Amino acid sequence: MNEFTNNSIDLNQLPKFEEVQLKGLNPKYITVLLFNFSLLLLLVIGGFSALFYFKQEAFSNTIWMGIVVGIVLFLTGLVVFTKFSFQKKGYAFREHDAIYKSGLISETTTIIPFNRVQHVALHQGFISRKLGLASIELFTAGGSSSDLEIPGLLLADAQIIKNLVSQKINPPKQDEPIEVVPTETLLSEEHE
């Protein structure tokens, strides 16, 4: 019978994820973020415009001016915050895991080992598709939402990452040859 052991781990010997060089998101992704904020702005302005149209007497001109100045200041702050937080986002793929770091005020680093990944998805929104961008989502067991999403990747890079993770979670059998599909083939099949 094997004897149970539970030896101490020297914390100084553990690999440090902080030392990993992270790759930044594609700069075109700021356009996607700003487009989303523009849609939010249009909805807010539309809501206040409808309120003003139907209930002009609801607020005085001073209050309306305060609301407009407040919205402009809020959105300016949001754009500045987005640009600074964009610079703090980064990702890396290592032999056994994926890392994603984000956050300006509260920094979050998520590390997902490939042996925990159930499936991987590539997602493109409308604006992202027009800019040639995509996001990768890694799903682990127990949830319907992704555990890790890396947005703002070039489509070709996202496809390579998806193939890499797919091979890590479903390695080919020893007697099966590994099929490598050129990116051009993947792109032409997508549009058919």
TrEMBL record:
Swiss-Prot/TrEMBL keywords: Membrane, Transmembrane, Transmembrane helix
**Pfam families found in the cross-reference section:** bPH_2
Asked whether the keyword Transmembrane is assigned, the reply is yes
- YdbS-like PH domain residues: 89-163
Transmembrane regions: 29-51, 63-86
Asked if the Swiss-Prot or TrEMBL record annotates the protein with the keyword Ion transport, the reply is: no
Task: Tell me the domain of life.
Answer: Bacteria
Q: Which residues form a coiled coil?
A: none
Q: What is this protein called?
A: PH domain-containing protein
